[in-house]
Give the backbone structure.
Amino acid sequence: MTKYDTLHDRLRGPIAKALQQELGIKNIHALPRLQKVIVNVGINKTKMDGKEIHEFIVDVLKRITGQKPVFRTARIAISNFKTREGLVVGAMVTLRGKRMEEFLDRLISYILPRIRDFRGLPTKLDGRGNYAIGLRDHTIFPEVPSSDVGKIFGMQIQITTTAGRDDYGKALLKHMGMPFTPDRVKTTPKSAEKVDSATDKGNTPAS
């Protein structure tokens, strides 16, 4: 039976070596690293208000992350959004260390591939090497039992790194196995190829 190397071990072994080679960084302590992962659920007052749904969200996040979430409340009242000061607007879990690594390991290797018609994640980071993933359906996590349609909610997963720049952050995530959408190969249109060929021969292409 083949031994599975956890993300914790790979980050300190083959991933670190690959980053050193790709980024040209000799000092292993200067390599981009994972800092924290925030799992956030926005709570819509009209659809997700009430003690029962709040308890359901807390239970789901505890099952998914292994950690109890905290509720976020509105700091100020905004009449246009019908929010008042102190109103619950979200639930959040902040993961660090091994718990963060275990969550990302499951997310990358098992959860994301389970999404129907999954074709990869966008490659855009935030300019500082951090990355956000939006999920529409919490039931893609196997720890969560099937829910009524009315109880299905989405979440955002924010991955914060020490990279400081997008190319370093993307390199770290890529070597972790983040399933990014493949870069499109730029092809020269056939019409342009004909023009280039005719120009090279000193001919004027026909209009």
